[in-house]
User: Which sequence fits this backbone?
């Protein structure tokens, strides 16, 4: 039973480019959460999605960031026009309904 | 005041000793409490969850919760070098999804042989 799969593991983007981060939840899990971990800071909640629905995006920056979890395929966190301050580790977690969430290995985004 | 605060660390203990990690939270509506372990460059791994006052033991790990004092702790007995990692305290507010957690900044634990 594969865990939460994130790809790519490492992503380098130049300032102004777009970054797309993918997350495939554990089998049977329909709840997906995205977190960001900035250097020397704790994990911060960004967004909570279920299939085709954004449930809670209270932690998402107002501009340039968006997330989706389509009926088919992985959840996508999209960052448009990246800036150096977006460099961080982005973690996806999934859960089966209202149970404890499990984290993926993360995508480490570097903006140069 | 941060919502979740952990003892700043880093914490260094000798192999075989008890490591004590502490966490306080400000939101009295917090209902669920978790300890995650994160090795450098890796993902957070859930090691303990606790929901009611008192102690919960799992192997070498004991979580303690005191809601009146808004305090949760993690004790690691017989510490091993492999326990060296960052330990993250996380809380969930009542009425929110299980995956929506507020994390502390983490405490770095080093267990030296």
Assistant:
């Amino acid at each position: 039973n594969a865990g939460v799969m994130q790809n790519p593991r490492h992503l380098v983007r130049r300032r102004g480019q777009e970054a797309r981060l993918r997350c495939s939840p554990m089998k049977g899990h329909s709840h997906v959460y995205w977190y960001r971990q900035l250097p020397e800071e704790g994990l911060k909640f960004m967004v909570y999605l279920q299939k085709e629905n954004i449930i809670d995006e209270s932690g998402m920056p107002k501009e340039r960031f968006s997330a989706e979890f389509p009926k088919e395929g992985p959840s996508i966190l999209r960052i448009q026009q990246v800036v150096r301050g977006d460099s961080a580790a982005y973690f996806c977690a999934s859960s089966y309904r209202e149970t404890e969430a499990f984290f993926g290995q993360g995508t480490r985004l570097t903006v140069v | 005041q941060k919502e979740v605060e952990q003892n700043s660390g880093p914490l260094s203990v000798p192999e075989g000793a008890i490591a004590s990690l502490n966490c306080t939270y400000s939101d009295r509506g917090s209902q669920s409490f978790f300890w995650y372990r994160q090795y450098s460059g890796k993902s957070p791994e859930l090691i303990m969850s606790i929901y009611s006052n008192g102690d919960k033991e799992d192997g070498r790990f004991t979580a303690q919760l005191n809601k009146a004092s808004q305090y949760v702790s993690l004790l690691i007995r017989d510490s091993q070098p492999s326990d060296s990692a960052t330990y993250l305290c996380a809380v969930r507010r009542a009425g929110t999804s299980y995956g929506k957690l507020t994390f502390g900044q983490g405490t770095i634990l080093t267990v030296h042989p």
